[in-house]
Design brief:
- The structure is a single chain.
- By secondary structure, this protein is of the alpha/beta class.
- The chain folds into two domains: about 160 residues, FAD/NAD(P)-binding domain (3-Layer(bba) Sandwich), CATH 3.50.50; about 200 residues, FAD/NAD(P)-binding domain.
- The strands form eight sheets. It has a six-stranded mixed β-sheet, with helices on one face.
- A hairpin with a 2-residue loop joins β20 and β21.
- α2 packs parallel to α10 and α5 packs antiparallel against α6.
- The longest helix is centred in the N-terminal third of the chain and has 20 residues.
- The relative contact order is 0.14.
Amino acid sequence: MTAVLQRSQSLTDAPDLDSRHHVVIIGGGFGGLYAAKSLANAPVKVTLIDKRNFHLFQPLLYQVATGGLSAGDISSPLRSVLSAQKNTRVLMGEVVGVDPKEQQVQLKNGEAVGYDSLIVATGVSHHYFGRDEWANIAPGMKTVEDALEVRRRIFLAFEAAEKETDPQRRKALQTFVVVGGGPTGVELAGALAELALGTLKDDFRNIDTTQTQILLVEGLDRVLPPYPAELSAQAQQSLEKLGVTVQTQSLVTNIEGDIVTIKSGDRLEQLQTCTVLWAAGVKASPLGKVLAERTGAELDRVGRVMVEPDFSVKDYPNVYVVGDLAHYAHQGDRPLPGIASVAMQQGEYIAKAIRQRLVGEAAPVFAYKDKGSMAVIGRNAAVVNIGTLQMWGFPAWIIWIFVHIYFLIEFDNKLLVMTQWAWNYFTRKRGVRLITGHDEIPAIAEQVAREMETEPIKDNAVVNV
């Protein structure tokens, strides 16, 4: 135990060994970062731990995936963001364990960090509803690597189609299926349509990219289910105007090779496609389960931690969970949504609560202020829902642009994104169309493997496309 405590001090107390209240924050997303920033002038010492060294603006990941922005445009180094806060340290590491009785967190490398207050904000990942084997063939978008993999597959599909001589396989290469009609799915489908029907239309000689088929599959009766019905209808209309086929009340029941099976009512349909993109469902990070095992906290069906009204874990008033990992059901008739503005307000609230408790005052009552929701469909097309105000079309698109630029963390990110968007708007170009990594399309590789099992191997057979 002594060795563990010594390691904890070496990580968190050097070089000044003081006795200030120590707040450890796990996760540098919106919730964790806003909590850290809100503790800048508090009489505490803060340690922010993240397995990455940067904050990622996840709402714009789909633009990285479709070549509109580079990953650096929407990422900010955590050390740079917090460098002016002399009471704050940043540690790059992965937390794998929590000991609430000893008040320590364990890192993957064996180190331990002690805390007086703990804020857990590790978010969520993709949820394949028990079909985790689909992850390789239907990637989602939660990390930079995810977005780069999606970008690789999108542009590689067009490159492969340019070389393909078989009409059926060429059609499969130019068919894209987006699973999930929430904001991510809608925005991704719209960006894909603009890419294929606009940006790329003059770039190829053997294929017509305007013949690309994009199918958006949603299990409920409309896209953007949390939005008012009128805005959902406007979003679907805008998508269809771009050339996206919207299929609601439909579920993907199987993905095998280049065949996707879709169930609509009692009807089963099989579609040949080489690119399936996942935007349906989330599950909590593994740290939610760790907390449940160590504290007895309840989890909801996707693994989020059921928190108290002040975001603490039951029976552990100094352990807080915020952001997408928190199931907060103390305001309204359903849990708060997993969006950036919720996480920001929660992070700021926890920082204020810790400040007040240090001076013996009761924590304030948390009251989420709904800043509205918005989704962009494409050029001059978006939907915005702010209180009783519902907007769509060009005015909503302008609001969407300025809101997203405003919430980017650093000034250089704001400037870069604004400049890139202006260039893309006037030229209809997407400049970050890089294909990195290997040149294999999983659906084709699997299909070719099956063919080679049933047919004699031919000369000059090529598996990669």
